[in-house]
Amino acid sequence: MATFDTIDDLPADKRVLVRLDLNSPIEDGEPQDNRRFERHAETVRELAEAGHRVALMAHQGRPGRDDFTSLSGHAEILADHVDRDVAFVADTYGDEALEAIDALGAGEVLLLENTRMCDDELPEESPEKKAETEFVQTLAPHFDAYVNDAYSAAHRKHASLVGFPLVLPSYAGRVMETEYEANTAIATREFDGPVTMVVGGTKATDVIGVMDALDDRVDRFLLGGVAGELFLRAAGHPVGHDVSGLDLFDEQWAENRELIESVLDERGDAIRLATDLAYEGTDGDRAEVAVDDIGEKETGYLDVGSETVAAYEPAIRESDAVFVKGALGVFEDERFADGTVGVLEAIAETDCFSVVGGGDTSRAIEMYGLDEGDFSHVSIAGGAYIRALTGEPLPAVEVLEAAAGRR
Ligand SMILES: Nc1ncnc2c1ncn2[C@@H]1O[C@H](COP(=O)(O)OP(=O)(O)OP(=O)(O)O)[C@@H](O)[C@H]1O
Ligand SMILES: O=C(O)[C@H](O)COP(=O)(O)O
Fold this sequence. Notes:
Substrate binds at residues 21-23, 36, 59-62, 116, 156. The protein is an alpha/beta fold and 407 residues long. The protein folds into 2 domains: 7-180 and 393-403, Rossmann fold; 185-390, Rossmann fold, CATH 3.40.50.1260. The chain is built from 16 helices and 17 strands. It has helices at residues 35-49, 72-82, 95-102, 127-131, 134-139, 159-163, 174-183, 185-188, 204-214, 225-234, 250-267, 306-317, 338-349, 359-367, 383-389, 395-406, and strands at residues 15-19, 26-27, 30-31, 53-57, 87-88, 109-111, 145-148, 170-172, 195-199, 220-223, 271-272, 276-280, 286-290, 303-304, 321-325, 353-357, 377-378. Strands 5-6-4-1-7-8 form a 6-stranded parallel beta sheet. Strand 2 and strand 3 (30-31) form a beta hairpin. Helix 12 (306-317) packs parallel to helix 13. The protein binds adenosine-5'-triphosphate and 3-phosphoglyceric acid (3PG). Adenosine-5'-triphosphate is lined by residues 200-203, 225-226, 248, 301-302, 325-327, 329-330, 332, 358-361, 382.
């Protein structure tokens, strides 16, 4: 159980500084709408409807990257979701920003410029140091309270995430609350029946670390994606190699080989590997091959095969809790979506506690017409989800908890 205060504890009629995570894919310079807007809109709407004066902080990209942009487009998308005006000021804590903040009326909402445009924001430092920055010291006196809703950035020790709880009464927003509860369930909850984890995607290094850290808190791991192939490689099959221009396997193999071998050795009984794989046949259609029949390492495999999906589905139906990290195949291409969608469908049909994490994987839910309501929780967090699964502390959550302890 989290020990932070939430916006239920926020007294009426306050000037509230709120941290969101609106970090989004950018196409042609424009932010693309996604689940983060819809989720954070709930917190923003609730605060505005309660009559608070609401100033929002968020980041986009990182300096030097293509996706490092202003938040003006984000304000428009957010306004559509909140269903009220969201003003934007191209300044974070300079005079222009402070003027706009002080002019806010009850129920009005203002988005400040990308926090990562400020020098004080990014260097990872202790909350105490961050609380002393000009950024925090300038903004804080203009507010009565700070709300952190940016669960998906809570693993970063940035000024807007860890500095304010040391100087303002601080609360968790709705996204922070729900993400925290669902994502820490594997570490904190007792389930009556089997706990299953679906492990896939391209970030094998991350997920193999999670498998190692979770150890016997998970009864079985269903593998696919890049990690799945690397485990098959460790089991002696000629797959999980970079072929035809792919650059996903060999480096991650070199980095994780020992860990994979030791996880396989110690938890082999709990690990289910694909028995068949899918690839692009010469006619361009999906073709499949049994893993035992693969004799040479010359094809790129893009999904688990249908025999594997048929074996994974009952394993899910018998589970009391299922956590998903990463897709079992390249689901963006319909020909290679069977593994990912088959597993998601089995979860949706089952009355288990389920969490689907990872921005890419959760996109499969809408792409293939699944109902988000059939899952207990669809996380909008990447790095923070991984850390929560392993029980690693999140600095921005820790300062919220400490702030509650001081009150
Ligand atoms: N065998 C495979 N070969 C290449 N790509 C694969 C394979 N299997 C799955 N993928 C890709 O993995 C991606 C999802 O992986 P990723 O590790 O990024 O997971 P995520 O948890 O959804 O995302 P994030 O952590 O970035 O929010 C999908 O886009 C899918 O195309
Ligand atoms: O999009 C995310 O996962 C978070 O906003 C963190 O972004 P970062 O990895 O650039 O710090």
